[in-house]
Design goal:
The chain is α/β, with parallel strands linked by helices and about 325 residues long. It contains 8 helices and 12 strands.
């Protein structure tokens, strides 16, 4: 048997590593080109002014008048820290839908993935990009022309929601924190976890073991699934009172193995000394990131509409 066919690790359903070092991301579905989306009339382009690169979106439907400023959303995609990108077709489709609904500028960040770049690489990349945007996004005409930096939002799904949480804490603690205000953060099916099972995790032994394996693959820490990066409720994790926004919306899905962690985050946030307004929205009979896998279903439309309303009303 050739070495290229001998499997070293199989991280179902995302990635396979062969003994010769070859990495196969078998959950990825290709690359969608940037440009004008004819259905939503949203224009996108890839930018690489700083590292990491990103894909930026803006409305191009004639609804934006000269000199009009738009809210800015920095988005972090999911994929268990090891797959996906802003150019992944399903993510590209959802971003087009959101921009069309919210009439906002969206910047979708392409942070580095594990295992080539183990954590905290994804956090460091995302923080570097956020700092660039906080500095005015210099060198990017769409931000310079259209962005209202007084209406700055952070959002992500799954691993991207985890990143969003950690960046919101970091903004508040940073040197620019006193002068920086994140208008709102959106956590969609956040990837939080822990060694001791809660809720449906207790009986769902198979999926519990899968999520344990995913985390240990991207973050081989001696703290395991109680590392503060993945478990925001352990003693050494930063207090949720440090969340750096006064508006937070959390989406969870009833059938998602991560659902109970999202609910626990909401409960702990509102019970903490954090001063803000939090809302949680549960979608019944749906599973993890259903809106990415099935973006044209009624529940996905409802989620995106609610998300767009949050951006426009926060």
């Amino acid at each position: 048997m050739a070495s290229s066919t001998e499997v070293s690790q199989d991280i179902v359903p995302f990635i396979r590593i062969y003994k010769d070092g070859t990495i196969e991301r078998y959950a990825e579905t290709g690359v969608a080109p940037a440009g004008l989306d004819s259905q939503t009339r949203v224009l996108s382009k890839d930018i690489s002014i700083i590292s990491p690169s990103a894909r930026i979106y803006r409305p191009d439907d004639g609804s934006i008048t000269k000199g009009q400023k738009l809210p800015v959303l920095i988005y972090f995609h999911g994929g268990a820290f090891c797959i996906a990108s802003p150019a992944e077709p399903m993510y590209h489709h959802v971003m087009n839908q959101l921009v069309s609904q919210a009439k906002a500028i969206v910047v979708s960040v392409d942070y580095r993935s594990a295992p080539e770049n183990p954590l905290p690489a994804a956090y460091d990349d995302s923080w570097a990009f956020l700092q660039w945007v906080l500095g005015g996004g210099r060198g990017e005409p769409w931000l310079e022309e259209y962005a209202d930096f007084e209406r700055l939002f952070l959002a992500g799904d799954s691993a991207g929601a985890n990143i969003t949480h950690h960046l919101s804490l970091r903004v508040k603690k940073s040197d620019s924190g006193a002068n920086t205000k994140i208008k709102g953060i959106t956590l969609i099916h956040p990837y939080f976890w822990g060694k001791d099972p809660i809720g449906k995790e207790v009986d769902d032994i198979v999926r519990k073991a899968m999520v344990d394996k995913w985390w240990m693959f991207v973050c081989p820490s001696d703290k395991g699934c109680d590392d503060p990066y993945i478990n925001p409720f352990v003693d050494e994790a930063p207090s949720l009172k440090g969340v750096g926004s006064e508006n937070v919306i959390i989406f969870v899905a009833e059938n998602d193995i991560l659902c109970d962690r999202g609910k626990l985050y909401y409960e702990n946030l509102v019970k903490s000394e954090w001063q803000g307004k939090a809302e949680i929205v549960e979608t019944k009979a749906e599973d993890h990131v259903f809106h990415i896998f099935n973006p044209d279903c009624d529940n996905a439309h409802a989620l995106i509409n609610k998300w767009a309303s949050f951006i426009n009303q926060a």
